[in-house]
Specification:
Pfam families: DUF559. By secondary structure, this protein is an alpha+beta fold. It contains 13 helices and ten strands. It folds into three domains: 53 residues, Arc Repressor Mutant, subunit A (Orthogonal Bundle), CATH 1.10.10; 117 residues, no CATH class; 94 residues, 3-Layer(aba) Sandwich (Endonuclease, Chain A).
Length: 281
């Protein structure tokens, strides 16, 4: 295999994008790079960055500004669920200058993890950092929860990171409650602090309910995972059947349980004050 084809293969093995200093460290000369560019095997998008013809355009766009894919763009490349978004999100050095930002969402802040100048993508911890600062809290949590769900991140590790960002710190503190079981644990702890006795995973009408207070007050907790339409219809149908059987059903989502506990507490307390937890005699 010629040097130029070997270089092309080497670049493709690195997601189709490479810093020329990394190529030299791998044994390719400046002449090898220049000749590959001349032959059209590689494209120089910035003085020290080359890309393969079939490189992902988002990675190429980051290389063209000497940056790294980050935030929702890198989250997509990692296979995470992300909200709808526009533009390619790139992280650049604080002293970056003289680049065309058209079509880009530029992140200037440095994440908590150091990154090599030859890297074309942010590490996950920085991706989460930028998502927390860039997106509305609920949408940022989508990215964080997805990383936890596919086990690219660990809640305990995220809590230990020195984030340097109030938004990221808040999400890291909430990370252990993002699963359905974690959300339920948070609710149970809040109820016990009030002295309210609860029972968990009680079967009613052929299905388990998250929490039963007394004899007739059902609390359902919608986990962070987005339900499919069919799942949502099933939940609504089950709630309706429980109401027809004399139960009161309160349903809270993760946002309320984690970030609006006062509302959740007030609603449950008022329901108990109305004796909705007691069966009619």
């Amino acid at each position: 295999m010629s040097r130029h084809l070997a270089l092309l293969q080497w670049v493709r093995e690195r997601n189709g994008v490479a810093h020329t200093s990394a190529a030299r460290a791998a044994g390719f000369s400046k002449l090898d790079v220049a000749r590959a560019v001349e032959l059209g095997l590689l494209r120089r998008v910035r003085r020290s960055w080359v890309v393969a013809p079939d490189a992902d355009p988002r990675r190429a766009a980051a290389a063209a500004v000497s940056g790294r894919t980050t935030c929702v763009t890198q989250a997509v490349l990692l296979g995470l669920w992300v909200p709808n978004h526009d533009g390619v999100h790139v992280a650049v050095a604080s002293n970056a200058a003289r680049f065309d930002a058209a079509g880009l969402v530029v992140h200037w802040g440095a994440g908590p993890a150091p990154v090599a100048a030859t890297s074309n993508e942010d590490p996950l911890v920085n991706v989460l950092f930028h998502a927390a600062r860039c997106l509305p809290r609920t949408e940022a949590m989508v990215v964080w929860e997805s990383a936890l769900r596919v086990r690219l991140a660990d809640a305990a590790v995220l809590q230990a990171v020195q984030w340097g960002s109030p938004a990221a710190r808040e999400l890291a503190d909430a990370a252990s409650f993002l699963s359905d079981s974690g959300l339920e644990s948070r609710f149970i702890a809040g109820m016990r602090a009030l002295g309210v006795a609860v029972r968990q995973q009680i079967w009613l009408d052929g299905h388990p309910v998250d929490v039963l207070i007394g004899e007739r007050l059902v609390v359902q907790l919608d986990g962070f995972a987005h339900h499919r339409a069919a799942d949502r219809r099933r939940d609504i149908a089950h709630d309706a059947r429980l109401r027809l059987r004399g139960y009161t059903v309160l349903r809270f989502d993760f946002q309320q349980v984690l970030f609006d506990w006062a509302y959740v507490e007030e609603t449950v307390v008022l329901a108990i004050a109305q004796r909705l937890h007691v069966a009619a005699r």
